């Protein structure tokens, strides 16, 4: 059976090797994959302003984006395709709580410009290559 | 206890208890909101409750870890902490930053990045606080007579946890990049360095409770933390399947994260084997229950329930659903909640000199909290699987699905009441012990 010093070598060796591989793969991802998959050339100032709004209002506290966040409100990565610009803007600019099926959303009362920035953010993120997420509902009845 | 300065630990544990109690309150607010009762929406909307609930979780566990370190390090290094005054200042400032953050969440002052909602200006205060903490621990270790493997693994976990907080503070314009580095903090904490901290505390408890030879326990500690990193570091890839980071992670993340349960299995087998091997029968049986409990429940909650949705083929459907909440609750409870409660249960008689050990209240606390959490996990699981099926397979609208699964949140709340009764009993016991005293020092 292993001695204590061999166990220590297993721990340190395993950690260093896997961490080095992780760093290498991360580098590859960040330098090559992410710019391509997220279409970084389309990352305009409006999109960045939209991301600021997304964070400063903690939208992730109810919704998910890229499948990450909370599970209280719909996933929004593809919301631009699903709902369109007009719908998104009217929700964000509403001065009363938006409450589909009784579940309330905070009334953000955004300005036209802010709502437009959010739309730009959703439009940009909706075009990201997500390896097929979210999946197509394959049991959906075709009408 | 053996050293006067270990008393500092008590106050960290007390703060942890307070934050835990508050965390449960916000959990109930969310549970009721999911059922359709959101009467507090105007004052505490869901995103506020959610940020408070998860941040209090992280902070009470970290506070517990700090308390554990202040208790364990003097005993392992065989010397007093270098400064108790600094430790108390660190405690108070930690509490103040925490309170400021939680209040801020009620007034839209936050950064909506899951688990890392603390705004960046406050982040810097956290950094200073943690540096102070690490300074005290490292200086004590340096000054001490002994540097045991247990204390080194624990300290290494704490140092890495602090370092890994930094990538989460960098601003990125690109949401995918932001998310990529957010997982460096969140994943590499909970499926990496926190397991080192957990392993260190577990080894300390097993040495004290079972009386098995330190050399044997520490050898296994190395193997377990070795398995943790071997699987957990590249296992970060299971967060990179569907966020725009490329196909390579489907394979890397799938393989390595599927190996992650091995570390938890190792931990469970190790704790049980040491318990059987040990000839010493420590009178603090309830601490033994929590110690073996954390090893077993973490294997089920973090290991098995994590494995259940870690493969990319499954995760494609479960990603971003209540299935994650199912795994998250039992994993955090088993691995990190219970280890903190274990070290508190072990150290309280030693800190206060009151050998209350096992009684009806703390046995009730152990079983009720665990049964309650198991029930909550099942409720989340049923709701989650139903959600996945209806939303991702059948293509029903999100809102319609939420109405279909409301009933499971009623069960969730019932189980949460059981859980809360257990935690209430635990806190009652904590209070009954009273304050630490120098008279409790053993020679």
Terminal CA distance of chain A: 65 Å
Report how far apart the termini of chain B are.
9 Å
How many alpha or pi helices of chain A? 4
* Largest interface pair: A-B, 69 and 76 residues
The radius of gyration over CA of chain B amounts to 21 Å
Unreliable sequence segments of chain A:
none
Largest sheet of chain A: 2 strands, antiparallel
CATH topology of chain B: Cytochrome C Oxidase, Chain A
Mean pLDDT of chain B: 96
Q: Rg of chain A to the nearest angstrom?
A: 21 Å
CATH level 1 name of chain B: Mainly Alpha
Number of domains of chain B: 1
Q: Encode the helix/strand succession of chain B as letters.
A: HHHHHHHHHHHHHH
Going by CATH, what is the homologous superfamily of the largest domain in chain A? Answer: Cytochrome c-like domain
CATH-level-2 architecture of chain B = Up-down Bundle
- Helicity level of chain A: 40-55%
DSSP helix count of chain B? Answer: 14
Describe the structure in your own words.
The complex is a heterodimer of chains A (143) and B (443). Chain A has 143 residues and is mainly alpha-helical. Chain A has helices spanning 4-37, 45-56, 79-93, 112-126, and strands at residues 64-65, 68-69. Chain A has 2 domains: 1-37; 41-136, Orthogonal Bundle (Cytochrome Bc1 Complex, Chain D, domain 2), CATH 1.10.760. Chain A is built from 4 helices and 2 strands. Chain A has a two-stranded antiparallel sheet. In chain A, helix 2 (45-56) crosses helix 4 (112-126) and helix 3 runs antiparallel to helix 4. Chain A is elongated and about 70 Å long. Chain B has 14 helices and no strands. In chain B, helix 2 packs parallel to helix 11 and helix 8 packs antiparallel against helix 9. Chains A and B meet through helix 1, helix 2, strand 1 and strand 2 of A and helix 1, helix 2, helix 6, helix 7 and helix 8 of B.
